Amino acid sequence: EVFSALVEMEGLIETESYLISYLEVYIKAQQQKVDSLKKKLLEYQVEHSEAALDTGKYLANPINAYLLTKRLTNDWIQVEALLQSEPGKEELAKIVDARSVLKFPTSEDLTGAATALMRLQNTYNLETSSLAKGILNGIQYSSELTTGDCFELGRQSYNNEDYYHTVEWMTEALNRFMIEEGFSNNHNQSEPEEFTKAEILEYLAFSTFKEGDVESALEMTNELLELQPNHHRAKGNKNWYETVLRDANENTKRGDDGSADITLSNVKMEIHKNPSIRHTENSVYEMLCRGDLKQTPAQQRELVCKYVTNNVPFLKIAPLKLEEANKSPYIVIYHEVMYDKEIEVVKNLAKPRFKRATVQNSVTGKLETANYRISKSSWLKTEEHKYIEDIVQRTEDMTGLDMLAAEELQVVNYGIGGHYEPHYDFSRREEENAFKELGTGNRIATVLFYMSDVEQGGATVFPQLSLSLLPKKGTAAFWYNLYASGEGDLRTRHAACPVLTGSKWVSNKWIRERKQEFRRPCEVTPDHPPKPFYKMI
Ligand SMILES: O=C(O)CCC(=O)C(=O)O
Ligand SMILES: [Fe+2]
């Protein structure tokens, strides 16, 4: 699959440019055939109309008799040959073979890309109508979506059981459909559509019902039945909606307050609200991604920037630039700790080995792909390149921790809407077995290098700390995941926000407990963190 990393999608641009050139040559060849046929037709028509005017007179001329004979012998053989010729055959073969030769996205990619758009819409509160116009946060980024695109996005949302967005996109499709219908009626040039108004209404009605608005769902179904009186499912739905409304009305009548509101208390109905307001941790996460939530001035006042040498002799000459991002747990940003030339090498080494990033199943301990982590990644060994050795040495200097038991450098590229929902980098108790086998202990600390700027979105956020770190090429974030006692620090729960525009590259160096005994001696008493300010789910 290609949608999970932007760099993987570059191959698709190449595919498209080949297809365009094949198609262009094919059409030219076909056009030449049609042009020649038209010319022949015209010649036949001219001669024939003269002959038909007065057959006797025409044939009395021996030259005409000869020409007529010739037209229907030699000439016509040429026409037949032209008709049967297959110009552009080679290009057609190339187009047919393209799927096995060139890089093509799959239907999973289409679903993934559509889901990513929905995620972006949710996280960044993007308006459907603006998005349909190709506008992201007020900036025109791409061409406008067609009615068919809106319908397709609605269908994809429906398949994901996201009824909120199905309603949004199908309403957009319906509005556009009506405008286009009016337009084509006036101009008498209707294009065949890949969907009908009835289909839009069916999706719209059912999703509106799922969202809890039974009356509107019924109205839409009635409209659908006007278009297609024998629509089987619509008839069934109409009955069902009417029953639901009748039951609700009876309930209301029995109510004391005499309110006319429809209560559906006796009807079991799943109401799918906008997913962004369903979970509290999620809503904090999304607010942080949008920049709607920030550290308080009181928190920020405490933070300082300084040059550090961490008692490393080399750093005495070239100290590191440290910016504190959070006091407790201590999270810092190091500036200018990965250089452009290193970044290029790391990217190039990583690209050919990219695989969809996995997560560890908390029950089985197995690695698997998940919708809550969408990116591609690969692992680079320290010995692979001098630059990686340098990066790992710098990581040791930055953290004061031993790199012997650290994991390899993980390099990550996020695709459109690519994200990693709130998680801990350390392993929870259930998963510990996996680490015991490795014998390296838990992930004591994380160093997260930013290898690109990101145009919009893609922040790393810590919901419990109201903290957002914006990617800046060459910087690295560093924090301890564990207390000195070895217990996991729940406040380090963090997430990678979906990338709205741009390509996000990061690399992680996860440092393990093993070998740190003398660098960060363990303590017996964990300091217990304050409770999060929102409800954990
Ligand atoms: O990409 C980011 O900003 C964070 C990535 C992350 O948390 C992880 O890979 O564990
Ligand atoms: Fe993480």
Could you characterize what this model shows?
The chain has 537 residues and is an alpha+beta fold. It has three domains: 6-101; 107-254, Tetratricopeptide repeat domain (Serine Threonine Protein Phosphatase 5, Tetratricopeptide repeat), CATH 1.25.40; 281-512, Jelly Rolls (Sandwich). 47% of the residues lie in helices and 14% in strands. The chain has 17 helices and 19 strands. It has a nine-stranded antiparallel beta sheet, with helices on one face. The longest helix is centred in the N-terminal third of the chain and has 48 residues, at 6-53. The chain starts with 5 loop residues before the first helix and ends in a 25-residue tail after the last strand. The structure holds 2-oxoglutaric acid and fe (ii) ion (FE2). 2-oxoglutaric acid binds next to strand 17 and strand 19.
Concise account of the structure shown:
This protein is of the alpha+beta class and 537 residues long. It contains 17 helices and 19 strands. It is flat, with a radius of gyration of 33 Å.
Uncertain runs: 258-278, 528-532
Estimate the strand proportion.
5-15%
CATH topology type of the largest domain: Jelly Rolls
Domain tally: 3
Shape label:
flat
Under the CATH scheme, the architecture of the largest domain is: Sandwich
Supply the CATH superfamily name of the largest domain: q2cbj1_9rhob like domain
Question: Residue share in helices?
Answer: 40-55%
Indicate the mean pLDDT: 86
Helix-strand makeup class = alpha+beta
State the name of the first-level CATH class of the largest domain: Mainly Beta
Instruction: Write down how many β-strands occur, each being a DSSP E stretch of 2 or more residues.
Output: 19
The spatial strand order of the largest sheet comes to 3-4-5-16-12-19-10-9-6
Cα distance spanning the termini:
31 Å
Radius of gyration, taken over Cα atoms and rounded to an integer in Å: 33 Å
| Largest β-sheet summary | 9 strands, antiparallel
What ligands can be seen in this structure? 2-oxoglutaric acid, fe (ii) ion
